[in-house]
Every structure is written in structure tokens, then in C-alpha cells.
Amino acid sequence: AKALYGNAVGLFEIATPIVAAVQGPAIGGGLGLALTADFRVTSDAARFSANFAVLGMHCGFGISTTLPRIVGQNAAAMMLYTGRRLTGTQAHEIGLADQLVEAGKEREAALALATEIAANAPIAVRDMRRTLRADLAEEVRKALEHELSLQRIHMATADFREGIRAASKRETPAFIGK
Predict the structure, then answer these.
(1) Are residues 92 and 106 in contact, defined by beta-carbon separation less than 8 angstroms?
(2) To the nearest 10°, the Cα dihedral for 99, 100, 106, 111?
(3) 14's torsion region: left (phi>0), alpha (psi -120 to 50) or beta?
(4) SS3 assignment, position 4
(5) pLDDT tens digits, residue range 3-50?
(6) Using an 8 Å Cβ cutoff, are 40 and 97 in contact?
(7) Whole-number CA gyration radius for the chain
(8) Could you give the CA distance from residue 123 to residue 150 in angstroms, rounded to a whole number?
(9) 3 state SS of 139
(10) How much is the pTM?
């Protein structure tokens, strides 16, 4: 996980804006990956979830920093504490998705947005991205260290084992707080 997280930080340090086409489930680590992008283009067919609590563990992939920054503290807390799955429409309503398009058109729309951005002065765009995300890579790096330390603790709990067991059987977990 540490190597994966180290590579994730690199995505925040890229100078060029990133546009993600979310064409299916962005759940757990997939949500974290989608949050590395500047913009997310999706359809109502997509699903977004920070399902960590449902699995009995702390969130990872820097989500504790990126999600509140994008959707606000309360919407992030709601997603993190409940593990609810949001449709693409619901994600768009809270600002998690920037563009909502017809299913099957996500990639095309994401490429159109990326092309629109790329048509502008590259030095100006790169510098504006650096300004907007000035401390984000370092914030994410610190969050990742904290998240990973808590994930290690949580993965040793009975609740984590129960969360994984229940998820694999598509059952509701019976957590005991241990």
C-alpha cells in the first residue's frame, strides 16, 4: 500500500491538468484515484462510494484531504461515515462530478474538456494549476502517512475481518467495536 500511495502523490505533482472519465464504479481506492483529477466527467450509470467504514477501516488514498476539499466537510463526512453509494447524478449535485453526460459518452466528454484546456496557453494553465494546488501534494503526502498508520491498526481488528467477510458475501456486517 505504501508504494501505491507514493505513486498517488505523484499524480498531484503533475503540472498538466487531469480530466477523469468515470465510467463505472469509483469505490474506495477507485474514488481516491478519481479525486486525483482536476475534473471528473461521469454519467448517472457511475457509482461513487467511500466504503471504508463499511469494511471496518480508515479511508486511504488521501481521501481525508481530497474529498472535503472537493465536496465540503459535511458532504465528505456523510460519504465517509455512511459508505453510501452515490449515483453519477448525486455525485454531480454535491460537486464530486464536474460534468454529467449520457452513459457511454464519458470518455468523449472528458477528452473534449481536456482538448479545451489544452487549447490554452500551456505555461499559464500549468502555473494556474500549481497555484490552485500549491500545497495539495504535501497535504496528501501527510494524509497518506496518517491514513496508512490507521489502516494498519484497523486491519488487525475483528471489525475489519467482519467487514471484509460481509462484503464478500454481500451481507450487512455485524460490527462489535473490537
Answers:
(1) no
(2) -20
(3) beta
(4) helix
(5) 776 677 888 889 999 999 999 999 999 999 999 999 999 999 999 999
(6) yes
(7) 17
(8) 39
(9) helix
(10) 0.91
H-assigned helices in 37-103: 52-55, 63-71, 73-82, 88-93
Residue type, 40: R
Rounded to whole angstroms, what are the CA distances from 36 to 9, 50, 65, 158? 9, 14, 11, 31
For residue 20, the tally of other CB atoms under 10 A from its CB is: 21
Eight-state DSSP code of residue 121: -
Q: Tell me if 46 sits within 8 A of 23, measured CB to CB.
A: yes
Secondary structure of residue 25 in the 3-state scheme? strand
Grid coordinates belonging to 27: 469505490
Q: Find, among 66, 67, 50, the residue nearest to 58 by Cα.
A: 50
Convert the pLDDT of each residue in 103-139 to its tens digit.
999 999 999 999 999 999 999 999 999 999 989 989 9
